[in-house]
Amino acid sequence: MQEISKGANVSLTALSEDAGAVVVSLGWTSATGAGDADVSVLLLDENGKIRSENDFYFYNNPAAADGSVQLLGKTPTANGDEDRISVDLTAVPEDVARIVVAASQYGGARFGDLDDLRMTVADRSGEPLVGYSIEDAGVETAFVFGELYRRGEDWKFRAVGQGYETGLAGLATDFGIDVDEGAEEPPACTATPAEGAEPKTAAVAAVAVAAVAVAPEKGAPSAVVAVAAAEQVSATVPAQTRGRATRTTKKKVTLPKVAKKSLAENDSWRTARLFPVPSLKSDKEREVRATSVLLSVMAQVPELGRRLTAGFGAPAGRMQTFTEVPLPHGDTPKRPDGVIRVERAGKLWTALVETKTHGNPLKDEQVQQYMDIAARRGYEAVITLSNDVALDGSPVVDVKIDGRRKHKVSLWHLSWAEVAHQAQMLIRHEGVGNAAHAWLLQELLEYLQHENSGCHGFQNMGPAWVPVRKGIEDETISPDDVRAVDVVESWERLIRQVCLRLGGELGQKALPVQRTRQGGDPRARRVAAAAALCADGRLSAELRIDGTSSVIAVTADLRTGKVRTCVDVPAPEGSYPLATAKRLLRVLAEAPADLHVQSLVEGENGPRGTLERLRPEPGDLLPKDGAAPTGFRLSLIKGMGNTRGNTESGFIRGVDDAVDRFYQGVVAHLGAVEARGGRRG
Question: In terms of pTM, does the model score above 0.70?
Fold first, then answer.
């Protein structure tokens, strides 16, 4: 990793061939362990200003709709915290010239009170590229750590280290955010926080109410203005409240991975569950129960509610949820499955929810009716929730948007797999506010994973699956068969769900790898993949786990009925080939005996064999002509299931099991080899 000083810059593409997406980390330590700060990201144009308030990302607006920016949250360190931000540079709009990464403190805290202020930038694989340490922090309450900026087709990083004594409000003003400075203290109508709300949230709400009171002609301030102005009234918040404002991830509650010893007399006894499911018989029962269970937990566990709605534009405020709400629509009232209402600074954000379970498809006509109702009643969004997985951030139903309406309604989709993923991330890895919230999330997860809940995620490869698979097996399918595109789209949904499940288990972000630029046409990509499917009978994908350099390739061969999972491991530079082969086999001591290991020589395939055969003779991996291997390819082959239908018990479960077995049995053991081998080329 290259260390640079304040004011210096460096080209990211010169440091890595895999810098199309980066992970930015801001870290600090505190002698007391109580120091904390909030990160923020601003997208700026050529003039150094934000294009709109949507270009400001912070804890209430953590993710961009196009996937270019996502705040990943805090990770505890030995004496402090590290805040990580994912930036997909290939998805950043063309009119964005700079990406500023900053942090701010509140409640009278100063950056001089923190130690080891540091910013690092890692490439897509997690390999650290460049680091910068701030050593001159003093009375500043906000800091611009660094920025990413364009130079032609390349992106560069500059270490900035600019501090602000005026806090986030001063920083925001510099970049074109309009901060209302008219109120010095909150009026009598200042909103009070809901029970359990963070004190800082109360301060932000107070500023928002004050801003409306002193500048009614401007209307309700945006979340951006409220956050930026929060520091203007920090002195008006009672001292005892300011004392509680410090947040640290060390106080978060997670559930132990190992279950407590059971007091049951035998294994047939079932643990009492808060959300029982064995009695569910009809699809309607499943939908009503699943909607009520999820919405109630979202309202009671703020971390989950915010996590599931932040990407849809909802603020972090007091949430209430409702089910089976009758709403007027023509002669017959309509009953959406749920309604979400979030209050922040006296302003409401609302959404209708339409739920499907057990693989039942969403109906275009029904969702269209809810979009029309939402537009007439001033709702901000319609959220569809089903086993299906959305791709490219697009809805899974087709609706018509009436452009003549002044009030715009957004249509979003959420899969049950995403809900389970977020619940697992919170209770196993990131933590929630208290033990009761952790227990509620565990009960929700138990419900979602029960075989009778109908909330198992993507389960159906679609009506084109069986005829396309049969046509490939019989070699009768036409290269331009349009049904193959539908199969490719279903394959992408399946891979996305595999990433969600694997990421939830590991506590790391797992994402499909797109070799083409993200701005490319998804339809054209799928048409090309469909033509390849018809030609060779294979579906292929790659996925990467955050924090590792390994890319897992998954290939489903419909002609042989096999799923192949593989990963390439680079050979350490300057090492002896035989020593490298022996070290690799030692690292894979616990790997499955049927693992295939193949040496790679300048991109060509070299000798290969199963782990069982190679263990006593590591030298068999080396080419006979004495050429040194550049790396090794590790592969597992598994049957994809004999079921010819659409059920999860066949193909879908086979792919999911293959990836899980490969990661747990092979990839998880490769850390030592990767550390010696360096960055993957």
Answer: no
